[in-house]
Structure formats: C-alpha cells, structure tokens
Amino acid sequence: MSAAPTDELASEIKEAFVSNWGVLAEGQANLRLLFWSPAVHLGLFRCATHLASQLRATMTMMTMLSGATVQLRVHLLTGEIQNAMRCGKELVRRWQRVAMEHAGPAEQAAVREGFETELRLLAEVKSTHIAAFGRVGE
C-alpha cells in the first residue's frame, strides 16, 4: 500500500465504521487515529472501550483503502496505553529483526536508524482507550 495521508486513512476507517455500525455508534466511539507510520504500516486508533470490538470487526472486514486492496491486522485491543505501546514496540522490534536479516552490511545502519526513529515517534503517543493495529498488507 502506498503511503496514505493520515487524515485519509482515519476518514476511510471511520466511514467503514459508520457503514457497519451507524452514525450513533461512531459518535459514541469517539474514533481517532493517534499514530500512523507509513514507513512500517503501524497505527494506533483510539476508541471508546465499549465499542472496541466493533472497531476490530470493522478494520478486519476492510478490503479497500485509498483505492488499494488491503488487509488490516488488529494485533491488540486494550484500555491501557502502556499495553498498546508495548505491543507496538514489540511489533516494530520484530519487523526490525526481519529487515536486518534481509539487509546487506551497507544497509544495516540505515535500517537500524529508521526503526529507531519509528520507536521514538511511537513513544510520543499519549492517550487512553487504544486499539492497536499493525501491518497493512496488500
């Protein structure tokens, strides 16, 4: 998937949520994309706890995003920011290990630096009622 702008990504997920659960549920859910990394396709979405399962279902059922075929994988639903951050960090570290295995000696420093930047950006996220999702696959 190409790097969709954050606002466009959030808008399409909200539209899908409304399509599945209605405008009232969308208003109650207070949906907000808190973090999106187009580099590693990792995001954190805020949602009211009582509608988190509906957000998971919506994201799991999405097949198109910004005109591209996608599969959203929800890795964690939680009400605790610490758990969402831990999950996000674990995912980034896992993806970094895989990228390092495939990178040549000359590329490894750039790969390491890129993933460390992603971890710093992720660490800046602050909120409650988080649903974390990971890779957007084509």
From TrEMBL:
Record InterPro entries: Pop5/Rpp14/Rnp2-like, Rnp2-like_sf
Pfam families linked to this entry: RNase_P_Rpp14
Gene Ontology cellular component list: ribonuclease P complex
Keyword tRNA processing part of the UniProt annotation: yes
UniProt KW keywords: tRNA processing
GO biological process: tRNA 5'-leader removal
Family: Belongs to the eukaryotic/archaeal RNase P protein component 2 family.
This protein's name: ArgH2 protein
Organism expressing this protein natively: Symbiodinium natans
Lineage: Eukaryota, Sar, Alveolata, Dinophyceae, Suessiales
